[in-house]
Fold:
Amino acid sequence: MTGIPPTHPRYKSLMLRERLVGGFRHGIVVPQGLIAHGRGEMFDYLLGEQTTKEAKAASKAAAAHLLGAQRPAISVNGNVAALCPEDVVRLSILARARIEVCLFHRTDERISKIMQVLKEHGAAEVLGFLPDAELPGLDHMRAMCSKEGIYSADVVVIPLEDGDRAEALASMGKKTIAIDLNPMSRTARTATVTIVDEVTRAIPELVLNVQDLKDSPEAAKSALSKYNRDENLKKVSNLMAKNLKSFLAPK
Ligand code: ATP
Structure:
């Protein structure tokens, strides 16, 4: 019970905050994660808090990459686990992707709590507790990952990822699918495909696209050929600027 009435104009956004605060109290979200969400909210405001056609196009290309992958993986941090654990699990099942918990502020306790949340939402296996490999070029704590999961993956979904790790994964030759509301972030500009959308809208959309493209290799091929990351990011940035200008324009 939050006391927030569903008629509140900012209901959805406030409910996401509630989930994060709940995750914080439960010990899966760190205070820094709350700040990162605030940065995301600001960009979402500029998007009109809706999934744009650019995000939809990126999501289709992302689905095509996932369906073409040999060893897909999904990286999960505390915010993602607090916001949409059920969607992560659905995506992992449909795309046959391993789930691995990867934390910037890593403790064994947080990892095991996040693993438990994902298992409660149906995940059969969650990697990340006993890392046995390191991503090159990062300090030890942030480099840690699992050989069976992200380290050997060919396509990695990286929602709300930090730029250093996104760059390290790209430098290993992996395809990465970022979900990030900031079209200017290093992660957004490094990933193979960047979906500029709020993660609780983006993952269900990705699930739908994986379902749609599963038996349509031609449609998957076409989604890939139509997608250009930098053009897509430019269009999203222009849309944000346009929304801001129209808000400021005299009536
Ligand atoms: P980078 O290191 O990639 O340049 P950064 O320093 O902003 O970017 P972080 O602080 O790790 O990276 O933040 C993660 C990113 O996730 C931010 O760009 C933020 O806009 C985005 N973000 C936060 N919450 C959400 C959300 N709910 N949905 C989608 N994106 C989000």
Residues 36-37, 39-40, 43, 160, 162-163, 179-182, 185-187, 198-199 surround adenosine-5'-triphosphate (CB under 6 Å).
